[in-house]
Amino acid sequence: MQYANFAYSLTSWDVEPDWTDFTEGIDSEDRQPWDAPIMFHPANPDVAWCATERVYRMEGAPFGIWEPVSEDLTLAVSPGLSFRVVTSLSGSPFNPDWVAAGTSDGQVWFTTNGGGDWTLMVDDLPQRQVTDIAFDPFHADSITVTLNGYKDAVYTPHVFRASLGGAWQDVTGDLPDHPANDWRALNDSTWVLATDFGVYHTTNWGQHWARVGDMPFIPVFELDVDTAASQLVAATFARSIQTFPLDSLLPEPTVVEPVDTNVIAVGEFVSPGASCLRLLGHPFENRGRAQLDPAWQGATWSVHDLNGKTMATGVVSGTTLEWGMHGWPSGGYVMQLLPKRGAPCTTRFVKGETR
Asked: What pLDDT score does 264 carry?
């Protein structure tokens, strides 16, 4: 990954890797970040994206050729021209053509047509390095960015949130003065944040943040959600990889008795704030079922794991929705209903171990 020197290996984890270069198509004259961003799009993992000072796309990854799909997305001015690069990429788990990019000089861009056109979103953002940009897996058109001024000796954290093309909202809240590095959503209102002072979490959309666990006060540069093991994974600068149980961060779901035993056999799961669907027989094993209001006819539904990977999609055609989950890891998942008009509905469910 260093300076966009990408390589892949198809050997299994217990065999010595056989690395193959896949940098063909990347202009060697580009300004290349030390830790150049690269991703397989969560809504279409056959397409890879990477960045230098511009964004590249590869069809049939990792066996294709990189094609540039943007111009220089930085300010491209001196001083410090060689350090002006794209530092973060994110793909929407709901749409394979939606990608957002952030740069080392505070520029935030997004495309909704696979890189054909890019729109700049910088109003009200501080001109600091974008350390992370992420589509929200619970809100189809929302993105969150973290920025820090560490290289300018400014330690104020910045966390901003917006709908695509909309106004930025500052959700930094009461975070202490330590740079923010990486953001993840665990549900509609619960987020976790990697900072230079450890990991923090909020359960009220960034109004108040609290430290997670008893990790020493050390820099954490990246977070991930291990759905199968139901744990948060933190990559630190000084103390290796650390984990924390997700059930200590997420509120308990509300379980109520069925109101119609002819419809709901074993109880009904209601996600806090959700009224658009009822999960039937939750938690699930190899098959999920939900009851919907008739108003959702024609809406698109999708299920994603907590990393944003799309597991199943379809179109609502009745008042009962069913989907298979054979081979899925046990753990938490997100279901979203996306209507042709109006606001989406999102709820979270759990797939248990198969008995």
From this structure: 29
